Every structure is written in structure tokens, then in C-alpha cells.
Amino acid sequence: MSLILPHLSRRGLFGLGGGLLLAGCDDLARTEKLTRIVKSAEDASRGFQRFAGRDALAQEFSRADLSPHFKVNGTQEPVEAAYQAHKAENFANWRLAITGLVNNPMSLSLAQLTAMPARTQITRHDCVEGWSAIGEWTGPQLATLLKAANMKTNARYVVFKCADNYGGEASKGGAQSSSLYYESIDLIDAFHPQTILATRMNGAPLSVGHGAPVRLRVERQLGYKQAKYVMGLDIVDSLAGYGRGKGGYWEDRGYEWYAGI
Ligand SMILES: Nc1nc2c(c(=O)[nH]1)N[C@H]1C(S)=C(S)[C@@H](COP(=O)(O)O)O[C@H]1N2
Ligand SMILES: [Mo]
Q1: For residue 197, what are the domain limits?
Q2: Which of 30-44, 71-85, 172-186 has the largest mean confidence?
Q3: Distance from the alpha carbon of residue 59 to the mean position of ligand 2, in angstroms
Q4: Domain count, the chain
Q5: What is the mean pLDDT of residues 40-57?
Q6: pTM of the model
Q7: Which of 114-123, 161-170, 173-182 is most confident?
Q8: What's the 15 CA to ligand 2 centre distance in angstroms?
Q9: For ligand 1, atom 5, which residue shows the shortest CA distance?
Q10: Average pLDDT, stretch 213-218?
């Protein structure tokens, strides 16, 4: 039995009742087979739970629910020269680069992005600082872009590279060091139907405060995951190459990488 026990979780043992526990050693072959079946069923159900849980949609609202005021938080307007140049041209020469573990690296203009089939969703944004707001977001599903870029089989994460070096706000202590804002999600969230690259908010082009020209909406997660001023997507198999390796600006400063709501 000692050979078998390590393969079974407590739940597996109790779920099976006493029959397996009492099986004699002469029944070892039969028991091992049963153990394998139980284990694979458990793996499958764990996998299903995880998938079913992560796959569920965030609540969507109606236009009547839109918040009259949606706070601008974090960077209000990137001061970086590259961003300011794009802003001055109304983002006419801005490109979204899709790089890394893809067979078709891409560079998309804002006009190309806005011409793609889009999803519109009215969702609640929850910031860890304790405020929420309901907004309407429109943009292509990230899945559409990733399919076009044709990811390699070792792809695991999408990294969102932002334009701003966020150094923290003086009013909040300003204690954070300045470094490029970035975020990352895994492929379950990347292919979630409500994960979009929003180019519009409340029916108008995205304002600078809310992340123009493009921001991520990944609706099952908290506010800090909703990367604004996205300049590029990097498809990677490890998060080690960015910041301090924890997968995001705030994650590098102690926040959870998976910020589920
Ligand atoms: N590039 C960038 N993205 C960012 C931030 C930021 O400072 N820079 N702040 C994050 C946080 S903490 C929140 S709550 C939301 C705020 O989005 P909003 O300004 O549209 O309300 O953006 C997130 N994405
Ligand atoms: Mo936030």
C-alpha cells in the first residue's frame, strides 16, 4: 500500500471509501490500476474546475448602470517623449507590435485595430484602493489577435508593455521606484471572451487618462491588471525577462499576479 498512497490525495482516499484501503497486497495490480483511474479522474476534475472557474464571464451591466464619473488612476498621462509624440499626431503613426513566441510577428496601426471585429462590454472595474466604476469598453478580442499572430506551442503568457514609467504618486507617498508599467496574463485569460484590447470607452475613443490609444480589459481581474497605454504584446514562456520577474509593475512590488475578482 505504501507504494500507492502517495499517488492519492486525501479526497481520493476518502472518496473511494474503505474498499481500496482494505485491498490486500495480492490485489496490488488491480489496485494500482484503480489508483491510476482515480488519479486521472481527479486530474480531469481539477482541470475542469479550474477551467470552468476561470472561463466564467464577469458580470455585464446595462448603459443605465454606467458610472457618471470613472476615476482616472495611476498614470494620468505618460510624460515620456515617445508617447507625447504619438499623442501629438493623434496616434496616426502608433503601432501595436506583437512579438516573441509567434510565427507571424505583427505591427498593427490604430486604424487596423479599430477596423477589426470588436466586442463591447459594460463591466465593473474594481481597484484595490477600494473604489469601483462601471464603464463600457469596445475593442477586438485578444484571442483574435493571438490567432492571427499564430503562437508557437511553447507560448505561456502575454506581456503588455506600456508607455509609462510609473513612479508612484506623491499624494500616496510616492515610495515606488520609477519603472515601465507592464502586466501579464496567462493563455486562459488571453483567450477569455471578455479579454479585449479596448480602443473605445463609453462610446468614444479612449481618452488619454483612461489609456489611449489602447488598453487591456481582462474583466475577471482587479484594476491594476488593466494595462493602459499598451505599446506592444510580447508572447513569452517565462516572466523572468520583465521587471523583477513577477509579471507586472505592482506584482514586482508585492501584489498578487493572479488578481481574481
Ligand atoms: N500603464 C498603466 N496602466 C495602468 C496603471 C498605470 O499607472 N499605468 N494603473 C492601474 C490601476 S491601479 C488601475 S485601478 C487602472 C486605472 O484605470 P483608469 O485610469 O482607467 O481608471 O489602470 C491600471 N493600469
Ligand atoms: Mo488600481
Answers
A1: 10-253
A2: 71-85
A3: 19
A4: 1
A5: 63
A6: 0.81
A7: 114-123
A8: 42
A9: 74
A10: 98
